[in-house]
């Protein structure tokens, strides 16, 4: 019986010892940066197609645009580097909307091709968790996913 009580006490206090470990720091997402050919063309795409807002910058930031993703998150568009960027659909920016059907209709109205993940044009992908999603590309070929919010 004494051994059982001692074992229970050790188990209970082991959480206290483990819980005393302190993390030196924590991280949170701040921004994603994309290298683009023409910062103005890309900014127009992100503001017109995705309804995102430009974050004002000083006039000397000529080849840079910052776009708000909401909640203090940002997309930085940089027209500084000239190297060709190669990417595939597995590397993408994913955004969610409560009005998924309206967004898909906007893509259709603007003649922006979208697909499911395998690449079937004008098809909506259904994830295993029931979330709908579409994939399309920005003017520089970066992939964007827009998905529905699971209610």
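^ Assign residues to that structure.
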């Amino acid at each position: 019986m004494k051994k059982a009580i001692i074992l229970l006490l050790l188990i209970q206090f082991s959480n206290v010892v483990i819980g005393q470990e302190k993390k030196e720091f924590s991280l949170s997402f701040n921004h994603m940066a994309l290298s683009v050919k023409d910062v103005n063309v890309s900014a127009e795409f992100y503001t017109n197609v995705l309804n995102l807002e430009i974050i004002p910058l000083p006039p000397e930031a000529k080849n840079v645009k910052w776009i708000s993703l909401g909640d203090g998150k940002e997309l930085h568009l940089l027209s500084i580097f000239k190297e060709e960027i190669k990417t595939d659909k597995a590397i993408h920016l994913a955004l969610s909307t409560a009005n998924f059907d309206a967004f898909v209709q906007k893509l259709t109205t603007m003649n922006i091709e979208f697909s499911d993940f395998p690449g079937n044009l004008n098809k909506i992908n259904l994830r295993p968790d029931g979330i709908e999603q579409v994939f399309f590309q920005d003017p520089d070929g970066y992939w964007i996913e827009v998905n529905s919010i699971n209610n």
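The first strand starts at residue 31 and ends at 35.
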